[in-house]
User: What shape does this take?
Amino acid sequence: MDKAWRARWTSYLRNNSSYESDYGHFLQWTRRLIKDNANFESTVYEEYQDAVQRESQSPLDFDAYQSVVERELPEAPDAVRANIFYSKLHQDVRKHIKLLGLTALPTTRTRR
Assistant: This one.
């Protein structure tokens, strides 16, 4: 399997771990990717638009998922990526960040 597709499958499993050993689901997922590849650009934008942090998903796992999708999009400034990421975090996480009293959000998603 191509390295990029393997990364997408791994990212998919982070959100859907119950399918890890379901070969039938893997085949269905692969067929969908092949079919969607004909409309790859619009499919990636839809996936990116619909992405939100799930209830049981950590911010780190959500960041990994977002990063995989973003690799297929035109490059955006770090500040834009950080703000989009923040807006897609689970409501409870955003609320907690606001309670911390930060006057400004980080301009990147990673600390260096």
